[in-house]
Amino acid sequence: MIGFSEQALMGWLSPIFWPFLRVLAVFSVAPIFSSRALPVRIRVGLALLVAWGASGGILNQPVVPLNGPDAIDTTVHEVLVGMSIGFAVRLVFVAAELAGELIGLQMGLNFAGFFDPASSTQGSALASFFGQMTALLFITINGHLLVLMAVVRSYERIPLGRGVVDMLRQARLHEMGAQVFASAFWMALPLTVLLLLANLALGIMSRIAPQMNIFAIGFPITLATGLGGLALILPLMDRSLLALLEGALSRMWFVR
Question: Beta strands of the chain (E only): which ranges?
């Protein structure tokens, strides 16, 4: 008769269960993985599959019993590390969506607001478009694989049950808020300048020909100028997105 001891059972479960919590915390916060279009069962199963595959590459991992005195602290630790990684990736998408808000404000498209069921928020059309394009580029440049690699490599910097306080202090995630605004501004700057020049030209036309109804022709011209500028800058978004993603993960030491 084959018997199982509690120590042997913990030795089998611990290398998989604790990485599973960290990966699942990432999937609950990071874009694409946390989408409502992805069912919870598939998300949990994918996290279990990733944890099972990564458990063999995590060396010198201590065995923490699931019913031991350190189980609660380890659970909080793993969830906090995973949510920090997912939050850093989420800020990349926020920068792109904020750039879409700024451009839409200049183009006059912020009037086209609607409820986004994927995020349960009210957003503008151009911000949603930038978010969808960012998600497409994220998959195209293998950003999802970069996130999974960051989760696995996080055990080199933040072992099981310790190191999260030093990580949060040195990563300085609160400073990434300023980086989000700066990145969104630089992404929106070319179109903002282009639309500013278009509005300046319309202002000069209204002074030269006062009888012209500038309100009737201003919106179509601004909209056409903005759409033309979008066609020019969209092929260059992949560089900005990749730089933001690498910057966010390198700030947390997981990608160099």
Answer: 113-116, 121-124
How high is the pLDDT of residue 30? Answer: 86
- Higher-pLDDT residue of 198 and 251 is 198
Among 4-18, 149-163, 190-204, 206-220, which stretch is predicted with the lowest mean pLDDT? 4-18
CA atoms within 13 A on the CB side of 25: 20
Q: Give the integer Cα–Cα distance in Å for 253 and 188.
A: 29
Structure tokens at 183: 């990145």
Q: Give ∠ CA 184-217-215 in degrees, rounded to 5.
A: 85
How many CB atoms lie under 10 A from the CB of residue 178? 9
What are the residue ranges spanned by the domains of the chain?
6-251
Which one-letter DSSP state was computed for residue 213?
-
* Cα angle value 162/77/60 (rounded, 5°): 45
Its pTM stands at 0.77
Q: How far out from the chain centre does Cα 132 lie?
A: 12
